[in-house]
Amino acid sequence: MPRASHGLIGDIYDAAMEADGFARLPEIMARSGRGGSAVVAVIDDRGCVEGATANLPEAAMARYAAYFHSVNPFVPAAFAAGPQLAPRRSLDLVSEVDFRQSEFYCDFTRELDTFQFVGGVFPIAPGRFCELGIHRGERSSRFDERDVRRVGRFTPHLQRALQLRLRLGAADRPSLGYAALDGLAIGCVIVGPDGRIIFANAAAEATAPVGGLTFGAGRVGLGATRREEALRLAALLADVAAGGAGGATATTAADGARLFVLVAPLPPRFGVAPGYALVTIRAENGSPAIDGPSLKRIF
What we know:
There is one protein chain. The protein is of the alpha+beta class. The protein folds into 2 domains: 3-168, Transcription factor LuxR-like, autoinducer-binding domain (Beta-Lactamase, 2-Layer Sandwich), CATH 3.30.450.80; 178-298, Beta-Lactamase, CATH 3.30.450.20. The protein has 13 helices and 12 strands. It has helices spanning 3-17, 25-33, 60-66, 74-81, 90-93, 96-101, 103-112, 145-152, 155-168, 178-183, 202-207, 227-241, 292-298, and strands at 37-44, 47-54, 88-89, 116-125, 128-136, 187-191, 197-200, 213-215, 222-224, 247-252, 258-265, 277-283. The longest helix is centred in the first third of the chain and has 15 residues, at 3-17. It is elongated and about 65 Å long. It starts with a helix and ends with a helix. This is PAS domain-containing protein.
């Protein structure tokens, strides 16, 4: 993977881990697609939960969240086609004629000159989705398949970074490092590209044995007691080691107790080369995020 791509991927994870880093994500994604502006939003069935823009007027996101998300013709078109990580061009979802006649174009996007975009809608949690749009103006060159493929290299990382942000909790924090991980109530394991377990916090050490997750002899290899689950986990770790975005899986103990496991690239702020994985572990009946008082003790 080109060095510039590694830099953008690292920027995505670092921004997702910062307390106010969500606001940086649109600018990073705009660079990934060579767009003039961009929007990244988290949506659910109630509307826009969190959103930010790059190179758009300050009030644009507020107007979008307050009303115009409800008349955006591309979101229902994307859901109808099936939410997916692979980005799509806006004019492949809604015809140019229909778009020009829409309230969304006439009263909102025309004045912003966001005539076309590449992006889409993809899941980040049950009932919660990321909406991504990387824009170009009406007089700019049309997005082509090369642009779609380029953005498609980064959307899995945006998905994983937002999942990691949700799992670790969204409370304010200046930084996230080894000392902070050690104090988290959620299990965290760092695995090197060669399979060595570099770090495991106390929660991981306590949780792993009760949910079918295993530490290999000599701290080499994070595995699972069930063969098919071990193979799935190994494939996700290998994906991150090769520059991929990892993914989610589960492990099961003999008594049926389950752990939900998320494998993601370790954010560059930890000072390591690409290929290291941050594995977060949560019991099936456990809390998905750390509580506020614990965060205050850590940070």
